[in-house]
Write a structure and sequence with these properties.
The protein is α/β, with parallel strands linked by helices.
């Protein structure tokens, strides 16, 4: 190869080497630059890391400080908690889910009297074993094994029931174990020895109190019997003496004796009832009864007192309410007697109205009754309304100090109504009058909606004559609901002015100013009117004796029950006046006198009974004790026996059982009426269970005696009371 070519080739290689060098230099520069950037990044990261390390180092230091402080606080709290647990007198222990003790305070461990086995780590089963083996616990009727099994099974429950154990020294410990969510158990032993001793004292005190209450009840029963026996002579003889001829001064004395005796009986009954209510010994005895008739009987009982004061006793019973209901008739009458009696006592002029309204419940099948007693009396001050139902409370002011009483009547009435599930209230305005009311729910004894008997045809218009507006309104509303037209008059003169041939019946009050009901009837007849007249009288006996009574078709007790009024209307309109009955000449009728046997050992009570029935056409015999009563029953063959319960030799119950045994041979049954001074709750049940038919408490009432005698009349005896036959006139 030529030199030139070699030089050229060398130059080319040198140029290529230079270009390669430049290329490598460029790559090295790029690598250095990248390396520099990476070194710069690493430097920055190192700086950041150092800063973070410093921060973390500071935080760690703070955490260490906080943990140290927290540990110190935990130690303080734990020390305080443990000191608190140690200071309490109740035993405290903590167990794991495997029933191993974690810790226990000194009070808990003190029960075991330093036994080394009882310490943290001991199992609960070992604790039970120690309690029984060492005689620390009294297992009672259970043996040691059975007691430990019972306690072990108890602890296995999710939430064990508290249990009371008795230690050897007589102390009582109540164990309460609470299981935590993790299964651990906190056990607390509370010493209830003082509580058990207190409960025992309460139990003993209750026993003493119940014994004292029984003694009080027995005392009240005996005192009631002892007081009622002489009171029978006082009130009974006063009642008999009233029927004799007395001058004005003597009648005043007799009335004072009788009224004072009746007042004393009210006090006795109030105290007995209240004591029975307080002792929760008074029970209700629901049975079917006629509410309207019960109200009527209460009004009749108080009619004499009201008539003496010139008051009108009125009743407004909703026409569409049932009268046959289920309740305790005796207690209903007692409440009504208290409320109506108070109304009469505190009313000097005007009227007392018993109003009965209600709402039948079609779904429940019962009736919600609202019974109110409205009066026009002295009223009650507003400040005393809430005070009036309190025990022994009476409104004390100048106006009512003339009225006596125990202050128990309203309290007893309130308790009785509450026992019936009802509510009692009062609204009053001083000087205007009062309205006492109560609400009770009763089931009907018959139909929820009673069917009223159809009135006779031809009865289109009735004239009502009454000087009392409210009484006219009641009768007018009741008759108009039956579709009868009414002409209402406030006096006899107004009635005569409005009388015409369109009037089919006259209902007139007896006592009216200027012209009374009988004078009106006489004048109507004198004018030639034959319209039937019914006289409504608060004193029917007086009306019956008046010669002008022949001008009326009927004398009805005021207020008159609706059913009685309807029956009179039917009899009057539909049935012609009866002629005098003719006896058959071929059928001889032989009547005997009713035979009455009275078994009574007290001579005073015999005298009272004899005087009460002296006007009756009867044969009367007395027995001084039960043995004589049984003997006379066989010889005298009475139609009715009045049997005293407390008698010597043989009491009334024993005598009755002997008579009933004799009747089993003959198949007969004589009515035996208990006559007793026993009036406590349950006395009547025990007496009637001995075979007696009826029950009367002393002091006896003449109307009750006569009612029992009349009920015993048969078809072969002469009526003991002769009554004039009512003759209807056209």
């Amino acid at each position: 190869m030529s030199l030139a070519n070699k030089l050229t080739e060398e130059r080319r290689r040198r140029l290529a080497a230079e270009r390669m060098l430049e290329l490598k230099q460029a790559e090295l520069f790029a690598a250095n630059r990248k390396l520099g950037k990476h070194a710069q990044q690493l430097t920055e990261e190192i700086v950041e890391t150092r800063a973070e390390v410093e921060t973390i180092r500071g935080e760690n230091q703070r955490v260490k400080s906080d943990l140290t402080a927290a540990n110190q606080k935990i130690q303080v709290v734990e020390r305080r908690l443990w000191h608190s647990i140690e200071s309490i007198t109740d035993g405290f222990a903590f167990f794991t889910g495997d029933n191993e003790m974690i810790m226990a305070n000194r009070a808990y461990l003190a029960v075991f009297d330093g036994l080394e086995v009882i310490k943290p780590g001991v199992n609960y089963v070992t604790i039970l074993q120690t309690l029984t083996d060492e005689g620390i616990v009294n297992t009672g009727d259970l043996g040691p094994s059975a007691w430990r099994q019972m306690m072990t099974q108890r602890l296995q429950k999710p939430q064990p029931e508290p249990v009371i154990i008795q230690l050897w020294n007589g102390n009582h410990i109540k164990l309460t174990d609470q299981r935590a969510p993790g299964g651990d158990i906190v056990s607390l032993g509370h010493d209830i020895t003082a509580t058990v001793a207190y409960e025992q004292q309460l139990k003993e005190a209750r026993t003493v109190a119940e014994s004292a209450n029984r003694a009080k009840s027995a005392f009240l029963a005996n005192m009631s019997h002892e007081i009622r026996t002489p009171m029978n002579g006082v009130v009974g003889m006063a009642d008999v003496l009233i029927d004799t001829e007395l001058d004005e001064e003597q009648r005043l004395y007799v009335d004072t004796i009788k009224n004072s005796g009746e007042a004393l009986l009210v006090i006795i009954n109030d105290v007995l009832d209240y004591s029975k209510i307080e002792a929760k010994k008074l029970d209700l005895h629901p049975q079917p009864f006629d509410l309207e008739r019960a109200i009527q009987e209460v009004l009749m009982l108080l009619q004499t007192s009201a008539r003496n004061k010139g008051l009108s006793l009125l009743m407004d019973y909703d026409m569409f309410l049932p009268t046959e209901l289920i309740g305790d008739p005796g207690r209903i009458r007692q409440v009504l007697t208290n409320l109506v009696g108070n109304a009469v006592k505190f009313t000097t002029t005007g009227h007392v109205l018993v109003r009965v309204t209600g709402v039948p419940d079609e779904v429940a099948g019962n009736v919600t009754l609202h019974i109110t007693i409205e009066d026009t009396g002295i009223g009650i001050p507003e400040s005393m309304v809430d005070h009036i139902f309190g025990e022994f409370n009476q409104v004390e002011n100048e106006r009512n100090r003339q009225f006596d009483g125990t202050g128990l009547g309203l309290a007893i009435s309130q308790r009785l109504i509450e026992m019936m599930g009802g509510k009692i209230w009062v609204k009053s305005e001083e000087g205007i009058g009062s309205c006492f009311g109560f609400k009770v729910v009763m089931d009907p004894a018959g139909a929820l909606h009673p069917e009223h008997r159809a009135l006779p045809e031809g009865l289109r218009r009735v004239m009502i004559v009454d000087g009392t507006t409210i009484n006219r309104d009641i009768l007018e509303r009741q008759l108009e609901r039956l579709g009868i037209g009414v002409t209402s008059c406030s006096s006899g003169a107004e009635a005569l002015k409005n009388l015409d041939t369109d009037i089919d019946l006259i209902l007139t009050d007896h006592n009216m100013p200027e012209m009374d009901g009988l004078e009106l009837a006489k004048t109507v007849r004198a004018k030639g009117y034959g319209v039937p007249i019914f006289l409504l009288s608060s004193n029917p006996n007086q009306a019956e004796k008046d010669p002008a009574k022949s001008h009326v078709q009927a004398v009805l007790q005021k207020p008159v029950p609706r059913q009685e009024l309807f029956e009179r209307l039917e009899t009057l309109i539909l049935t012609p006046a009866p002629s005098t009955p003719q006896l058959s000449e071929t059928t001889p009728v032989t009547l005997r006198k009713l035979r009455v046997l009275a078994a009574e050992d007290n001579k005073t009570n015999q005298l009272v009974f004899r005087k009460m029935v002296k006007g009756l056409d009867i044969e009367l015999a007395f027995a001084d004790n039960g043995e004589e009563a049984v003997t006379l029953f066989q010889r005298f063959v009475p139609d009715i026996i009045f049997m005293d319960i407390s008698m010597p030799k043989m009491d009334g119950k024993q005598a009755t059982k002997a008579i009933r045994a004799l009747e089993e041979r003959t198949g007969g049954h004589v009515s035996i009426v208990a006559v007793t001074a026993h009036a406590m709750e349950g006395d009547d049940e025990g007496i009637l269970a001995a075979g007696l038919d009826h029950y009367l408490t002393k002091p006896l009432r003449k109307p009750e005696i006569i009612a029992q005698i009349e009920a015993a009349c048969g078809t072969d005896v002469t009526p003991p009371i002769r009554r004039e036959t009512l003759q209807a006139t056209g």
